[in-house]
Amino acid sequence: MKLLLITFAFFSFLTLSFSQQTINGSITHGGLTRTYILYVPASYSASAPAPLVFNFHGYTSNATQQMFYGDFRPIADTAGFLLVHPMGTLDGSSQPYWNSGWGGTVDDIGFTSALIDSLSLDYSINQNRIFSTGMSNGGFMSYTLACELSSRIAAIASVTGAFNVNQILTCNPSHPMPVMEIHGTADGTVPYNGSSWIESTSNTLSYWSTFNNCDVPAIMTAVPNINLTDGCTAEHYINSNGLNGVDVEHYKIIGGAHTWPGSSITAGVTNRDIDASVKIWEFFMQYDINGKIGYTGLSSINTEGSLTVYPNPTFKDLSIKGLENLTNASVIQITNISGCSVKSIENFDETIDVSALEEGIYFLSFLNGIKTETIRFIKL
Q1: Same-domain pairing of 237 and 330
Q2: In this structure, how many other beta carbons lie within 10 angstroms of the beta carbon of residue 261?
Q3: Tell me, what's the pLDDT at 31?
Q4: pLDDT in tens, 98-134
Q5: Torsion sign, CA atoms 153, 155, 159, 162
Q6: What is the dihedral angle through the alpha carbons of 247, 175, 139, 45, rounded to the nearest 10 degrees?
Q7: Are residues 86 and 219 located together in one domain of the fold?
Q8: Sign, CA torsion 152/108/142/225
Q9: Is residue 301 part of a domain?
Q10: How confident is the model at residue 327 (pLDDT cuts 50, 70, 90)?
């Protein structure tokens, strides 16, 4: 019997070593047992650290549904990344959700970080190439991770998600963040133009384009309308040349509903001109946590570096600490959340007056012919 068990274990090992695995796992965090589904492609090898992609389900959905609906598994098979589908907890209405600022006491940011730690004990994970995507509430969750767990997240992509209203006032990433948003203009669940509690797609993307110091306006390219029966078309927008080489990309689905383009499951007007999963991985594969792979520029957002501004937020004066560490800066440029320049200052000293600015979020850049330092501040 012992020999049979050993033989069975050996052949089981061979099977698992040469075929993909779908593993139902769990960890304990915050006093709760949290579950997830991990997909390990056959190409995975412990000798080569693999990227990790989080794929968060939408509100009322679950990990299994998201694994099939927003399916990355065939892509992981060839690209060699690990793919994890976490499971949310129940809200006050007993519906599965992610606490991306949606209320409740569940710490989903801490859970995500703990899940990274747990998976890293058993698998060889490239800690510089951890990405987050998701559908709807899963998209909101990805934006929240970009703001509050940026030290571990290299890039994010959202399908039919957005910022919560005023989330831009508290978002504080530690590095330039590559962002992709895929969103239908006829989305009746998360309206493209926003609502009383949802930022518009335009405002959401403007924040990231400005934060990353990308080129504005975005360059638009019409996506070939290869499917004439899906009831919608697509446009591709890109704000490029951001700090550390990062871009902000947007697929605008004209007439598209609250759906995942290219999904094998049709649940409303679903675009068939693109495959969202393919586009998202093509976006992710360009980056690690330091920006675009192979990028040699020297620009960086200074959130915890040699320069600081205070008080932040401010009503009137903004003091600059650390100017002695900045070489050859000749101009201060202030841009708003839409990327428009609102003030340019030459011959500046350690205090500047911003009282004339309207309330909101701004970016202060020190220029010497190139972008050298950028700091976010809030005007009250």
Answers
A1: no
A2: 27
A3: 96
A4: 999 999 999 999 999 999 999 999 999 999 999 999 9
A5: positive
A6: 90
A7: yes
A8: positive
A9: no
A10: low
CB contact at 8 A, 360 and 336 = yes
Q: What is the dihedral of CA 177, 180, 184, 185, to 10 degrees?
A: 50
- DSSP annotation of 324 reads G
User: For the chain, how big is the Rg over CA atoms in Å?
Assistant: 22
Residue among 73, 86, 83 at smallest CA distance from 50? 83
pLDDT per position as a tens digit, 341-379: 888 888 777 888 998 998 777 888 877 654 467 787 777
Which DSSP helix (H) or strand (E) runs through 276?
helix 276-284
287 and 314 share one domain: no
Residues of 270-279 as b/e, b for ≥16 C-beta within 10 angstroms?
A: bbbbbbbbeb
Residue 105 carries which DSSP code? S
The answer on 323 and 248 residing in a single domain is no
For residues 119 and 176, state if they share a domain: yes
For 259, the domain range is: 20-292
User: What is the residue-wise DSSP string for 152-220?
Assistant: T--EEEEES--PBTTGGGT---SS---EEEEEETT-SSS-TT--SSB--HHHHHHHHHHHTT--SSPEE
Averaged pLDDT, 187-215: 96
β 155-159/125-135 pair status:
parallel
Whether residues 276 and 150 fall in one domain: yes
**Residue 304 predicted with pLDDT over 50:** no
Spatial distance between the Cα atoms of 109 and 102, rounded to a whole number of angstroms: 13
Q: Does any domain span residue 244?
A: yes
